[in-house]
Amino acid sequence: MDNSRSNAVGKQWQGRTDGAGWMHSALSVIMRYAPLRAMYLFADVFVVPFYLAFSKSSIPIYHYFRKIRGNGIVRSFIGTCRTFSQFSKNVLDKFRMYAGGAFSFEVDNMELYDTLSRSDTGFLIFSAHIGNYELAGYTFKASDKCYNALLFADEAETIMKYRDKMFRGNNIRMIPVSPDMSHLIVMSNALADGESVSIPADRVLEGQRTFSVEFLGHEAEFPAGPFLLAAKRKLPVLSIQVMKDSAKKYKVFIKKLDGEGTSAHEIARSLLKSYTSHLESVLDLYPHQWFNFYEFWKS
Question: Residue ranges per domain, the chain?
């Protein structure tokens, strides 16, 4: 089923990093010198209980484990705690990298990305709000062609400055979502020039057309735009998800999405099913790295 507007409007988690600018700057300095595991422990002891007690986002995560994954009450509560713990660690890892730190990355199917990056054809990369996708952009340099990353512009100014500093040296250009939709022109020009464009393909903005699809056994809405763009322009698409595997290691999962059909609409829906299948396989391995902190499913 397709919808002209998202039924999820008004209930979405905004995705803005908490804290004032001076807090972000201070945390970056602290992460330069503090032992990483000590900061993880601090987050588990002080930050996680705060979010559990005072944040409304704990309820959707509990529902994710209880209703979507079918866990019991106790296991769902533990899963909620572990998710906030994991999310806190991922945020700390970003600040660690802002401060000059590094993590190791193990990549599955890197040849899929290398082949497209060396070609003359533009291509799309679909990310999601799972794991720590942003961290890979701070580590890997786009040497063959410019890598354009579509970002929601509501992030804190200090975080956007950190991102710009980290991305610029790796030939990665940020494209903030603009109210006047000018970001669509920038994206179109980048693809026409044979560059890659990365889009978060799991979060619906107000007024967007959506596709409904079964995801983790329950009906959910995804933005139709990224998939229709790929189908209409006949672009290759990769799904890339970056998951925290241990304290200092991340694992990168890359899959080429398959789209079949006789019309752009059919191809787009086929690409969506391939994308959600990839997300399901990754989340089965890392169930505590689902970071859409709002009621994602229709039920």
Answer: 2-287
